[in-house]
Amino acid sequence: MSISLSNLANTIGDSPTLKINAKARALKAAGEPVIHLGGGEPTYPAPQAAVDAIIQKAQSRKIKYTPSAGTPELKAAVLDYTHLHYGRRYEPANVIISAGAKQALYNFLLSVVNPGDEVIFPAPYWVSYPEMVRMAGGAPVIVRGEGKQLGVTADQILKAVTPKTKAILINSPCNPSGQIYSEDFIKTIVEFAEQKQIFLAMDDIYHQLVFDGKKTPNPCAYAKDGNNLVIINGVSKLYGLTGLRIGWAVCANKALIAAMGRMQAQSTSCNCDLSETAAAAALKGDQSCVQDLCRILQENRDVLLREAAQIPQVRVEKPAGTFYSFMDFSHYNADSNALAQYLLEKALVAVVPGVSFGAEGYLRISYCADQASIIEGMRRIRWALDKNAPKELKIGDKLLTRD
Ligand code: PMP
Ligand code: GLU
Predict the structure, then answer these.
(1) Residue 161 to residue 144: CA distance in whole angstroms
(2) Ligand 2: which of 20, 23, 103, 126 to mutate, most ligand atoms within 8 Å of CB?
(3) Which residues of the chain carry a pLDDT beneath 70?
(4) Which of 185, 296, 326, 402 has the most CB atoms within 10 Å of its CB?
(5) For residue 324, how many other CB atoms are within 10 A of its CB?
(6) Are 124 and 354 in contact (CB under 8 A)?
(7) Which of these, 180, 209, 203, lies nearest to 323 by C-alpha position?
(8) If you measure from the C-alpha of residue 235 to the centroid of ligand 2, how many angstroms do you get, rounded to a whole number?
(9) Burial 364-375 (b: 16+ CB within 10 A, else e)
(10) Which of 197, 167, 262, 207 lies closest to 84 in space, CA to CA?
(11) What are phi and psi of 345, to 5 degrees?
(12) Is the Cβ atom of 203 under 6 angstroms away from ligand 1?
């Protein structure tokens, strides 16, 4: 008799974004001049306040378990953040701190989904949504735009609702498209979900990373008691603090937050003491780093779009936020996995295939790297796709060759 894994383990796939990070890292470590345009983390250095807080905490030599749902200090900082950005003053029992927005989302799904319940979200979606819903025993229901249209309307979401719908997941601005949902869209979904008593999770991890003076609509503006509305956020993208692994969920519904707390207490006990201290310091510190980050990302976006415009037949909608662009490369290869593999092998450029986000024919190209990398990466992609270009490209002392 052979030893076997669970059915769940045998069906849950790798995270394609983390996989491409690992691949790019391994190639770099092997000395290959790889350009990483696949990543989802700003290269921006950590805010000084966070660094000082970690040092101070470490020097106290008290690095212990913390309260399971988060330290009072970090909860207070998150509540102030929520008041400032969403106009709602909540209490500590309304917030749970988790190991990244990712764990907050997972705890949420574990706390609301019964076997067979449906969770609706639009495509293109963040890679982990379908797998997380399945891990919680639910059924992902993906809503797609008409034809080649990437965005979806509120109406299309409402039409996907069935008696089995337990939750709707919205990410604005959206990873991978960088698009912000309109005020009208958010209003319709918030009001509908509240009226029907369907949970609505707003994955707001990029809500401050917006460009051209745009703003993401505030869902709390349209909620009455907001008992079904969960706001998910974290410090990963806002401050470039991906390695802290600190995120949170805020909801008027204390029973939901308490349930999420039980999931967490029984699985990871609590968050990392050093990380919670650092995240609180970042939230309470000088916020000019967020504006600086937005300015840099907007400039990077413009550089990327300028470079992309030089590749014929590539279509892209100007991202309004995040640090991702979602480009239609179907003219070159309708199989985005094969194209991403080709670009990594031949041009040493890492990008993420669109199929991982539920949109075949696209590539997600990040612009959180430095501008020189963006320009070089796009130059190599252009070369790799141009049938009339020379078959060889010299990169330092390395010679790239393509088909
Ligand atoms: N949601 C979205 C849309 C993301 O892109 C990410 C990126 N990691 C997360 C949630 C999770 O972020 P983290 O766990 O690093 O806070
Ligand atoms: N969210 C980032 C991305 O989409 C980081 C990787 C991950 O957590 O999946 O690339």
Answers:
(1) 14
(2) 126
(3) none
(4) 326
(5) 29
(6) yes
(7) 209
(8) 13
(9) bbbbbbeeebbe
(10) 207
(11) -70, -45
(12) yes
